[in-house]
Design a protein that fits this description.
By secondary structure, this protein is α/β, with parallel strands linked by helices. The chain contains 17 helices and 9 strands.
């Protein structure tokens, strides 16, 4: 007898949480406000599919593990971010920094003579492991799956050997798996190491070893190669996607206008970018830029699929061509209404003095380009500002969000 995979449930909402380092606190604020929609109070999560990378993997795993009570899950997430400090994420004491500096000096100065490879990363993220170990109940993921509150959770990390985006999926039997040119999905039981690998910011935090079949490979931040952050949730079967970005689109447009303007005032204000600004732009390329591009791609595909479906009604297919099922996927994206880089710039004094001293050596960018600081400012004053911003932005669109989550399910 043939084993037939269970049919994927219909009308599933997907939650997509992008990367962003300390900016992930914004997502907690958005989700907190969503959980206060009256129809969700004390109820299971409205998201049967959850996917995330980097900070989004931390947030997504927390929500998935508490799918039975969405409100309680969001409160836990807010507590995690609102009480955060740098010492809970990485070591920055003089001894740790001196050890890192010594390793770097030996590698860069004498690596050609005595061999290199001593330096694994610029910061030691051991405290983050301890924090997440206490904060996330991984057993809750399987409990949510068995209870039917969760269909699948996908956590994406980047393989340092293949350079591919690996999405590690824990879900109900029959969920989709894939192996594309740049993306791979593996069925697994998610652990703390998967989340830490996904959140291992390149160069800043060390790679994390994970089992992949019978071998062990090393992984880093999931955003590095996940240029289509909506894709895992779509492939897992989501028909509606609620995505939370961490970049202010208006601020990005403003910076672009300053580069394109012929106004002399703009031209004189643009100065040679310091190394810190270049590093911030590199971080943006890894963490922030993919969601907007993927959303544009999804909208184009939706138009194509809708047109194809209309054509099929008029012209019956003569030959059945084997291809992946295509469907219209409805997105709703929430992004910051204020520039998070500017918020980080006003609170840069909250960064540990030793780290701030090292960052000052890279030069001082203008406020709108202080992106590097915004990724690494793991401080409660900053994260609480972002939580409030996310809560406010979601509140302004609360009716739209409620309509998005529930109206399609009505008979």
């Amino acid at each position: 007898m043939l084993n037939v995979a269970p049919k994927i449930p219909s009308n599933m909402n997907g939650l997509v949480l992008t990367a962003g380092g300390a900016r992930g606190a914004y997502q907690a604020g958005v989700l907190k406000r969503v959980s206060e929609i009256p129809a969700l109070l004390g109820k299971p999560s409205p998201f049967k599919i959850v996917t995330g990378a980097s900070a989004g993997a931390i947030n997504g795993t927390t929500i998935a593990a508490n799918s039975a009570d969405f409100t309680a899950g969001t409160k836990l997430l807010v507590r995690l971010w609102s009480n955060l400090n740098a010492a809970q994420v990485f070591h920055y004491d003089p001894l740790s920094l001196a050890h890192t500096g010594t390793q770097a000096a030996l590698d860069f100065a004498f690596g050609g003579l005595f061999g290199a490879g001593r330096l694994k990363s610029f910061l030691d993220a051991a405290p983050l492991r301890h924090l997440l170990e206490k904060s996330i109940d991984f057993a809750g993921i399987e409990q949510a799956i068995q209870a039917g509150h969760l269909y699948a959770l996908g956590v994406t990390a980047t393989g340092y050997h293949s350079g591919k985006a690996f999405t590690f999926v824990q879900g109900q039997l029959g969920h989709a798996l894939w192996n594309k040119s740049r993306r791979v999905a593996l069925r697994t039981q998610l652990t703390l190491d998967h989340v830490l690998a996904s959140a291992a910011i390149p160069l800043v935090f060390p790679p994390v070893a994970l089992k992949t079949g019978d071998s062990v490979a090393y992984f880093g931040d999931g955003a590095m190669r996940l240029i289509t952050p909506l894709s895992p949730a779509i492939r897992l079967g989501a028909e509606r996607l609620f995505a939370i970005g961490v970049r202010c689109q208006e601020s990005a447009n403003s910076l672009l206008r300053s580069e394109l303007s012929t106004n002399d005032d703009y031209v004189t204000q643009l100065k040679r970018p310091p190394l810190s600004q270049i590093c911030g732009t590199l971080m943006n390329a890894i963490f922030l830029d993919h969601l907007d591009a993927d959303l544009d791609h999804l909208n184009r595909m939706n138009n194509f699929v809708a047109a194809y479906q209309e054509l099929e009604k008029k012209v019956p297919a003569v030959d059945q061509v084997l291809h992946e099922p295509m469907r219209v996927v409805t997105p709703l994206v929430i992004s910051p209404s204020a520039d998070i880089a500017i918020i980080a710039k006003t609170l840069e004094h909250r960064m540990p003095r030793s780290i701030r001293y090292l960052m000052d050596g890279l030069g001082q960018p203008d406020a709108q380009s202080a992106d590097l600081m915004s990724f690494l400012l793991f401080d409660s004053a900053f994260t609480r500002e972002l939580i409030q911003l996310g809560y406010h932005d979601a509140g302004l669109r609360a009716d739209e969000i409620e309509h998005f989550l529930f109206d399609h399910a009505q008979p």
